[in-house]
Amino acid sequence: MTEREVVPVRPDFSAADIGTILGSIRTALETGQLAQGEEVAAFEREMAAYTGARHAVALASGTAALVCGLRALAERGIGEVLVPANSFYSTAAAPLLAGLRTRLVDVEAKTFAPSVETLERAVTKDTVGVLVVHMGGLITPELRAIADWCEARGLWLFEDCAHAHGSRLDGVHAGNFGVAGAFSFFATKVLTCAEGGMLTTDDDELAAAIGLYRNLGKTEAWRSHHTVLGENARMSELHAAVGRAQLRRLDEFLDVRQRLADRYTAGLSRLPGLTPVLPSHTPASWYKYAVLLEPAVDRAALKAALKEAGVRLGGEIYEMPLDAQPVFADRIPRDTRHPVSEDVCARHICLPLHTRMTEDDVDFVVTALEKNLT
Ligand SMILES: Cc1ncc(COP(=O)(O)O)c(C=O)c1O
To answer: How many CA atoms lie within 13 A of 130 on its CB side?
Structure first.
């Protein structure tokens, strides 16, 4: 065991950020405005301005953003939602929680996202929409084509942007290609407020409906008059204060992540047995630096050896396809296999990547990989 350790993720709060956040939290505590106040409203305005969306609605989590968004979309029609088989639990659970149905589709190994062709094969007369996920921050270059395909078919496109803060394709921020985008601000994310989420949309009616669903179906913030079956999915003023400080630094975070990712890409090019999964666009959030291993490489053994060498890898995106999760056993149709999702889930790893890392840390990881792959 070495003394040195490179950890997979670490939030970044400078002394100045901590001062700003504590100042805002002090104000909230002193005034007693802990919820539904100016911090949340300002965070929403700033996130809308940053992403270029007309509306940004703050929520308690990324899952809440998906569920409330889908509850509002379910008002436009109940049916099946196409979801990539390699995603996180919430992407597949959210349609079910919102009274819709989930059908899994396979992805491409190069983009970790479905192609138009795959969606075309999966669509049925019951399909109402498509959820795409920008895995690790990668926006598939086919996204515009997917959006056009959805429009031609009368389906909505909803982007799970939990990994994609700052990712832009042809200058357009993730979350603006379809009807809405759902962001997560969980503690491991590129932009965090510990727990939180945001839904972005240009659709005025959808934004208003999500405002209702997040606040117990109330038509007015402080009045007990309930019109839809909502939940409490609100973000607190304290969380918004943290999120605002992070958003101010997002561009700086993206620059550091890009520099570290470039160093990985250069260092890994001389190594056998692996292929990095790279975005075709800049900026990318670089939430994860994913690497596909040759089938012969034993992932568990490699991870254990790297840990021994002082390199702790983060979670995969994801370790197994969603249909292998027990919860979905009798909730999601199992009439099709998803061979590419099965393959990429089984044989990729995600290298440590966060803004507290140095280029020397990247070299340390590459050297550890080199020793264990050759
Ligand atoms: C792809 C994806 N979707 C949705 C979520 C849900 O976000 P949260 O943990 O904020 O509920 C996550 C979070 O971890 C995620 O990775």
So the answer is: 31
Helices (H), the chain: 15-31, 38-51, 62-74, 89-97, 116-122, 143-153, 204-214, 237-248, 250-268, 299-308, 339-347, 359-373
Atom of ligand 1 nearest to the CA of 186: 10
How far is the C-alpha of 213 from the C-alpha of 69, rounded, in Å? 8
Q: Do 161 and 199 touch, CB atoms closer than 8 A?
A: no
Q: What's the predicted TM-score (pTM) here?
A: 0.98
- Give the percent of the chain with pLDDT over 90: 97
CATH homologous superfamily of domain 250-373?
Aspartate Aminotransferase, domain 1 (3.90.1150.10)
CA distance 181 to 198: 8
Ligand 1 within 6 A of CB of 197: yes
Give pLDDT tens digits for 34-76. Answer: 999 999 999 999 999 999 999 999 999 999 999 999 999 999 9
> What's the CATH number for 15-248?
3.40.640.10
Are the beta carbons of 102 and 131 closer than 8 angstroms? no
Domain with CATH 3.90.1150.10 in the chain: 250-373
Per residue in 355-365, pLDDT (tens digit) is 999 999 999 99
**From the CA of 66, how far away is ligand 1's center (Å)?**
9
| Token pair belonging to 280 | 């075709």
* CATH 3.40.640.10 domain span(s) along the chain: 15-248
Q: Is 203 in the pocket of ligand 1 (CB under 6 A)?
A: no
Tokens 């407020």, residue? 193
Q: How confident is the model at residue 2 (pLDDT cuts 50, 70, 90)?
A: low
Residue found by looking up tokens 């309930």 in the block: 226
Kindly state if the Cβ of 61 falls inside 6 Å of ligand 1. Answer: yes
pLDDT reported for residue 273: 87
Q: What pLDDT score does 81 carry?
A: 98
